[in-house]
Amino acid sequence: MRATATYRRARVSRKSRFTAARFFVALIVLVIFLFPVYWLFITSVKSSSEIFARPPVWFPADASLGVFGVLFKDGDVWAIYNSLIIATTSTVVAMILGTAAAYSLARFRTGGQNLAIWIISQRMIPPIVIVFPIFLLFVWLGWVDSYVGLILLYIAFNLPYVIWMMRGYIEDIPIEVEESALTDGCSRWQALRKIVFPMARTGIFATTVFTFIFAWNEFVFALILTRTEVLTFPVLVTHYYGAQSTFWSKIAALSVLGTLPVFFAVATLQRFLVRGITMGAVKG
Amino acid sequence: MAGVTLKAVHKSYGKVHAVRGVDLEIPDRAFTVLVGPSGCGKSTMLRMIAGLEEISAGTIAIGERVVNDVRPKDRDVAMVFQNYALYPHMSVFDNVAFGLRMRKTPEKEVKRRVGEAAELLGIGELLERQPKQLSGGQRQRVAMGRALVRDAKVYLFDEPLSNLDAQLRDEMRTEIKRLHQELKRTMIYVTHDQVEAMTLADRIVLLRAGVIEQEGKPLELYERPQSRFVAGFIGSPSMNFVPVALAKTNDGLGVQLPGGATLPVPPQRASGLGGRSQILLGIRPEHLHHQRGVEVPGGFGKLRVTVEVVEPTGANTLINFHLGPNSLIVRLDGYSSAQPGDQLDLLVDMNRAVLIDPETERVL
Predict the structure, then answer these.
(1) ipTM score of the complex?
(2) Which residues touch B267 (CB under 8 Å, ≥6 apart)?
(3) Quick check: A76 and A254 in contact, CB under 8 A?
């Protein structure tokens, strides 16, 4: 009996030691990943002298949100607004067109075996290779420094990704489930709305988030194709970095503001980003 | 309720001709089973009736109405799929109610009918659950409920039992038969399992390579197959086939087996053999009997064989032996004490043997 109890105690203590070690490793990883975010925020509320102080100031003595006020007063936050308009519109349109195209590829074998590969190959072009021809085209069309120019470009650039991802998610849905809906009295559209989209919900949200993040972070196209009217936030950040002086606190503050929409988007949609919704549809 | 009529129906996928000019009359309220080996076109035919596959040529009518260009939702058919195809984001109740709601049935009526169907299938306790919380057998029942709750003209079943384990499959087979007896609806059932076909069907349609090989009542196909293929497909274990030479005997015509034994051809069957010298003899394992006395009844032939393998199944004993290069099997009733190497005297029921033209493979 005593031997068993000792054994059990040894096992319990080994288990708790393992849990503690795991927790400790997780903590270190968390600190490594969150430190840049912390440093970004802390820089935005530091005074100029604290930003360059050596040794570094880990906790600013008189933190101030003043630079955020300046960004609002000077109208620099419009860049966030521009980014929101461009990223949201291009994401919504790319998702609608891309999902429709993906459904067609997945269910009707549109374009045979190779069309899907060809489509995703478009995404492999390095942006810098095509940005100048596009610039010349946009000059001719009068689209430089306009919403429509960037929105269309981001749609075009994101469509292959959306089509590729959504095709995979739709192919994962057993076709019999859809056929069952058709014999149960659904039209093709009703089957999409009532069966396919709810079942592909996880994929739709995941693809939406990544498409949005791409458009939100995109820099090369935005830098070349905008001037003053529709500056996006990554481009404006570079404006604070000058030959004479660099506004570190503004860079940090605008970056904090620019991180928030993505943070909220992911935080809100996170619960949908968990797989498992198709479980139980067909034989287990 | 309605019958289904197929006239000269073809289906091609590119160069593959899956269904080749099928004419078929499926009677109203009958249980019709489409059976055949993989790739014979049986599932394609079912899917064409449902409207899930377009037909390449011919016409399909449900009742009086030709439905070639009618969408699945307007054909008024209900279908049970092989992998159940439940809607995973809906509860069992919503799954079963889906078809009724799509047809704008009042919610009170939906509740009543789902309740009835659930009771019929014994899934009343499961209505609030999600499909992923159900076992395979329960999912199967829900899939059946989803079809049977509707008041459809035709009910289609696409190998609904093939994903269940053997015991559950037997139970569900009986259940489906009981449901058809109670509900008396037009049901078309696809399977590759001839036992399912024999036990369930009012009428069997046996397909091979996209054409109907034979159709009729189950026992008609069993007793009077029209070709070697039908004779071999229906029945378990399969019919034994032995190439034999026709020979004149003192009592009339006989067939000479590899190994030397001669069996009599019943006089009434001899006339159909023409001037042939070789035929294929088909004998079902259950039409070979252990000879216990010395007497050989009329229409029977006598055969001595050497036992090779003995397979007791409980109710029967299967015994394998060779006649020349041909491996044969006999099913004896009950327990047999025969051992490998033993000599066994068998009586061959020549009245029930099948005589086949070896060239055309048609039954003579």
Answers:
(1) 0.86
(2) B252, B253
(3) yes
DSSP code per residue over B236-274: SSPPEEEEEEEEEETTEEEEEPTTS-EEEPPHHHHGGGT
- pTM listed for this prediction: 0.83
Separation between Cα atoms, residue B104 and residue B101, nearest integer Å: 5
Residue showing tokens 């919900």: A201
Q: Where are the domains of chain A?
A: 2-64, 69-273
| CATH number, span A69-273 | 1.10.3720.10
B200-210 residue pLDDT tens: 999 999 999 99
> Cα separation of A251 and A40, whole Å?
9
Q: How far is C-alpha B224 from the chain's CA centre? A: 15
- B245 close to A (CB below 8 A): no
Residues of B in contact with A279 (CB under 8 A): 88, 132
The domains located in chain B, with CATH, are 4-233 (3.40.50.300), 240-356 (2.40.50.140)
Q: Which residues from B are below 8 Å from A185, CB to CB?
A: 73, 99, 102-103
The predicted model gives A207-229 an average pLDDT of 91
Surface-to-core class of residue B160, CB atoms within 10 Å of its CB (0-12 exposed, 13-18 middle, 19+ buried): buried
